[in-house]
């Protein structure tokens, strides 16, 4: 968790400096970032769903 907070803090600091210098950020538009977030969530959804399915199958087989 600590590396994520450091990364967020560094990003905020750079954003403030960019604003104070009047420089436009080279970051992609917000719509691209939302799409990237969707990709990351989709990557995580498959292992989570697989784990839930395996857990439900195990619990169903133990009830028989």
Briefly summarize what is shown:
Keywords: Membrane, Transmembrane, Transmembrane helix. The protein has 64 residues and is mostly helical.
Distinctive features:
64 residues, mainly alpha, elongated, XapX_domain, DUF1427, membrane, transmembrane helix
Summarize the structure in words.
The protein has 64 residues and is mostly helical. The protein has one domain. 83% of the residues lie in helices and 0% in strands. It has two helices and no strands. The model has no long low-confidence stretch (mean pLDDT 87). This is XapX domain-containing protein. Keywords: Membrane, Transmembrane, Transmembrane helix. InterPro entries: DUF1427 (IPR009872), XapX_domain (IPR020017).
Q: Could you state the order of secondary-structure elements as H and E?
A: HH
Class computed from helices, strands and strand pairing: mainly alpha
Reported for the largest beta sheet, the result is:
none
**Hey, roughly how much beta strand do the residues contain?**
under 5%
Low-confidence stretches: none
Average predicted confidence as pLDDT: 87
Helix coverage percent = over 70%
Distance from first to last alpha carbon: 41 Å
How would you summarize the topology of this molecule?
Blueprint (H helix, E strand, L loop, with lengths): L1 H20 L8 H33 L2
């Amino acid at each position: 968790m600590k590396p994520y907070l450091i990364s967020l803090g560094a990003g905020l600091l750079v954003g403030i400096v960019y604003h104070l210098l009047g420089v436009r950020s080279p970051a992609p538009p917000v719509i691209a970032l939302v799409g990237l977030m969707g990709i990351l969530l989709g990557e995580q959804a498959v292992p989570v769903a697989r784990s839930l399915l395996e857990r439900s199958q195990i619990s169903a087989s133990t009830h028989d």
